[in-house]
Amino acid sequence: MFTKDTDRERGQVGIGTLIVFIAMVLVAAIAAGVLINTAGMLQSQAEATGEESTAQVSDRLDIVSTSGTIGEDGEGENAITDLKFVMATAPGSDPVDLEEVTVQFIGEQGEETIELEEGHLENIQGLQSETVLIDSNARAEIEIYLGDGDTEDGDVEAWDPMSEGERGTVIFTTDSGASTEKELRIPTTIIDDEESVRL
């Protein structure tokens, strides 16, 4: 004789369970969408930050040589009346537009920042255009006049010519934020017979 097993557990299936299941699927889909959007946004931000950081390190200028033209200060003493920098891009740098470069002068006479202009550029060779250094083989000579109120706009009007033994610092900063620093040391004796001196 057979008996029925009435103690067996039976699953409950109905419209309520279906609604709960659909709600769980929707919540999971929404959460997944939020996570995917957040991950994409973080990836884009990380890429942009990486590119900017790389540019700040690599897109900079190298100073090939520095010299100063010998003249007289306001008291008739020998002094450096203008500075000449031969510039190139650093290895691995992207092209640098010299008109987007700022130059900061820090020294005994105070501090001043100027922006390079086409009038500062002399003896340009191998440039992509009149003001753009395309690679490390290109060279541009930048000439900046110092002080005494007779300089044109864009020169270091706040500074007088640099006298014997004077020191200062020049910082070139490209539009990507990369900086190149040069310390200037004027010789303690400037000879009249010379037109310029290496600094």
From TrEMBL:
One Pfam family of this chain: Flagellin_arch-type
UniProt protein name: Flagellin
Reported function: Flagellin is the subunit protein which polymerizes to form the filaments of archaeal flagella.
Regions crossing the membrane: 12-36
Subcellular location: Archaeal flagellum
InterPro entries, per database record: Flagellin/pilin_N_arc (IPR013373), Flagellin_arc-type (IPR002774)
GO MF annotation: an example: structural molecule activity
PANTHER family the record matches: FLAGELLIN B1
Lineage of the species this protein comes from: Archaea, Methanobacteriati, Methanobacteriota, Stenosarchaea group, Halobacteria
Native organism: Natrarchaeobaculum aegyptiacum
Residues making up the signal peptide according to the UniProt record: none
Biological process per Gene Ontology, one example term: archaeal or bacterial-type flagellum-dependent cell motility
Family: Belongs to the archaeal flagellin family.
Coiled-coil stretches noted in the UniProt entry, renumbered to this chain: none
A cellular component term, taken from the record's GO annotations: archaeal-type flagellum
Keywords: Archaeal flagellum, Cell projection, Cilium, Flagellum, Membrane, Transmembrane, Transmembrane helix
